[in-house]
Each structure stands twice: as structure tokens, then as C-alpha cells.
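In response to the reviewer comment on reproducibility (Comment 2.3), we provide here a single inverse folding case reported in full, input and output, so that an independent group could reproduce the run without further information from us. The C-alpha cells appear first.
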């Protein structure tokens, strides 16, 4: 089952196109990649690129891809498609293909992607992909789309958006840790002294409120969040015709 992510960005189509098609800008907002760079090409040949992801401080997984084509339709929508593959033995993704689609409207642009890939490592890799890796990839794509939206709509750079996310995550973790270790539910009666018995009912309530805030409170407006993106098409539509160019994903020997 392929992945689908969609967001709506109040921005100019050309500016959105530039920040998604230029490798230097793309790698700034897309959490899935540490580096993206075009490779030299002959005139008239498809554009190839190299991508890399730092999995650990000492481990980087890389691969290459090719832009299968770009198309601008009479209605103003645009689509770009690509194939990608990684020969790295530690890359769960062996090969795949996908597309980006840009649909302008009166208030901005609907920006969406659909992609799928073949995992390696046989049945074990398929199981790891279904249970862990594919959900993680979907989350990372959606989170990255919202970071791109903040950059275009609010001028919050990708680097600042990441710092905001880490700071909010740290605060939530501290609140949750405080609740679970009894800093709220256990220590409050001692602090209240003689009023402890009269206010004992507040402790479970405060515990519930604290845990709820830590886990379920909506992220701040300047913090990227995957939950703001759609994970399925609002209406069932056929994939862009350009994807017919992607019948055979790029293979490496």
C-alpha cells in the first residue's frame, strides 16, 4: 500500500515549486534527507540526483534517483515524478517511485505526494516495513510538509521550526515525567498541609489534565505537526498520468 500525504499552503505556486524542486532548499525542510544533489547530465538526458540520509552519527545511507518528467496542465496544475533506488545493504528501501502534485486554488496551493517502494531483506524486511518503517516514513513526510508550510506562510525557517518542535517536545516530556513520577499527583498533598484532605480529589484531576496536555494538546502554531496533513485523498482520483513513466523503478547493480 502506497503512502499519500497532502497539505494546503497559502503561497504562490512558483515559490512552492522553487522550494521543492531546488535540491538545496528541498534538503532543508525534508526530514527524510540529509543531502540532495543533482548529478551531471548530458543535454536532453533525464535529471539524475543523489540523496543521503544520516541514520546515526556514524552511518549514512545513500541512493540515487532520476526525475521521470514534469508536466504543467492547461488548468494550472503541475506534476513531477521520479524513480529512486539505494544499493546500500542497510537501506530498507530497495527501489521505488513517486510523484508530487501542485493544485492551485483561490487561497494557495494543494500540495500532495504519493509514493511507494519495495523493501529489501525478504519477509523480515516486509514485516519491519509494515509495522515500523512505513508508518515512520508517512509521519516524517507529513511533518516535513507542515514544516515547508510554516516556511512559506509564516517565514519560519526549517531550522527554526525544528528547534521549536524539539523545545515543545522537551516541555511535553517534562510535564509527562512530572505527572508519572508523582511530582504533581504525589507531592501536592504534602505542599497543601492541613488542606490536603479537603483537596485530595484535585490530585487525580491534575494528573489527568497534565497527562492530557502532554500527549494530546495541539502543537503551537509555529511548531510543525504531521497531524495537520491529510493521509488519504479527500476524493478518490486516479494517479497523475505522468506516473505511467514509472513502470520500472531504477535498479542498481
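Designed residues, in position order:
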Amino acid at each position: 500500500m502506497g503512502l499519500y500525504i497532502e497539505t494546503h499552503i497559502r503561497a504562490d505556486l512558483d515559490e512552492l515549486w522553487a522550494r521543492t524542486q531546488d535540491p538545496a532548499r528541498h534538503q532543508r525542510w525534508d526530514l527524510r534527507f540529509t543531502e540532495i544533489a543533482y548529478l551531471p547530465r548530458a543535454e536532453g538526458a533525464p535529471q539524475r540526483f543523489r540523496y543521503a540520509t544520516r541514520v546515526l552519527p556514524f552511518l549514512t545511507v545513500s541512493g540515487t534517483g532520476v526525475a521521470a518528467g514534469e508536466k504543467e496542465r492547461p488548468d494550472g496544475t503541475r506534476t513531477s515524478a521520479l524513480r529512486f533506488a539505494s544499493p546500500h545493504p542497510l537501506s530498507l528501501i530497495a527501489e521505488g517511485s513517486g510523484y508530487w502534485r501542485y493544485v492551485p486554488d483561490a487561497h494557495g496551493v494543494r500540495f500532495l505526494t504519493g509514493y511507494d517502494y519495495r523493501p529489501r531483506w525478504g519477509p523480515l524486511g516486509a514485516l519491519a516495513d509494515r509495522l515500523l518503517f512505513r508508518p515512520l516514513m508517512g509521519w516524517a513526510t507529513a511533518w516535513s510538509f507542515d514544516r515547508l508550510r510554516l516556511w512559506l506562510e509564516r517565514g519560519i525557517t526549517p531550522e527554526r521550526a525544528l528547534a521549536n518542535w524539539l523545545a515543545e517536545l522537551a516541555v511535553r516530556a517534562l510535564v509527562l515525567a512530572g505527572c508519572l513520577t508523582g511530582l504533581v499527583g504525589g507531592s501536592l498533598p504534602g505542599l497543601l498541609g492541613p488542606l490536603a484532605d479537603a483537596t485530595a480529589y484535585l490530585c487525580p484531576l491534575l494528573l489527568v489534565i497534565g497527562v492530557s496536555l502532554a500527549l494530546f494538546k495541539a502543537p503551537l502554531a509555529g511548531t510543525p505537526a504531521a497531524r495537520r496533513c491529510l493521509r488519504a485523498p479527500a476524493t478518490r482520483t486516479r494517479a497523475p498520468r505522468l506516473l505511467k513513466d514509472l513502470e520500472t523503478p531504477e535498479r542498481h547493480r
